[in-house]
């Protein structure tokens, strides 16, 4: 559930998403908010839950409006102990602005070339029975 209630999903276009790993299974969005709010305007905090049990899956996503605020949070909170666990904070690899992040650092949109992975061919001649 989001830290911001059940008013529906927030608008996350043009936000920077951080992945927070190794949170306690009892840690809530309300517990995380004061840590992350120190570094900028938090748009949303989401803790994925197990669909069957409703229990936390042990990680969270924190979204910021501005890249520099998200970078400050990564720099200052990665390795911090929260609820007795050392958390890992990094930029999420997927999401609206993930293409502007490279190895945890913000890059200029024009400085990164887009390349596609080569597709695997389905050459059936390799399958000899």
TrEMBL record:
One of the GO BP terms on file: RNA splicing
Keywords (A to Z) from UniProt: mRNA processing, mRNA splicing, Nucleus, Phosphoprotein, RNA-binding
Any Pfam family the entry gives: RRM_1
Presence of keyword RNA-binding: yes
Compositional bias of kind Basic residues: 113-122
A molecular function (GO) term: RNA binding
A GO cellular component entry from the record: nucleus
Compartments (UniProt record): Nucleus
Superkingdom as given in the UniProt entry: Eukaryota
This protein's name: RRM domain-containing protein
């Amino acid at each position: 559930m989001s830290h911001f209630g059940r008013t529906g999903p927030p608008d996350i276009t043009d936000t920077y998403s951080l992945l927070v790993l190794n949170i306690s299974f009892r840690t809530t969005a309300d517990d995380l908010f004061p840590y992350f709010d120190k570094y900028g305007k938090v748009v949303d905090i989401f803790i994925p839950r197990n669909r069957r049990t409703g229990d936390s899956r042990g990680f969270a996503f924190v979204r910021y409006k501005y890249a520099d605020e998200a970078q400050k949070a990564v720099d200052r909170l990665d390795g911090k102990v929260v609820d007795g666990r050392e958390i890992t904070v990094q930029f999420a690899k997927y999401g609206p602005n993930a293409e502007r992040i490279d190895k945890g650092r913000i890059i200029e949109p024009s400085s990164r070339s887009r390349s596609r992975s080569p597709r695997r061919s389905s050459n059936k001649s390799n399958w000899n029975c």
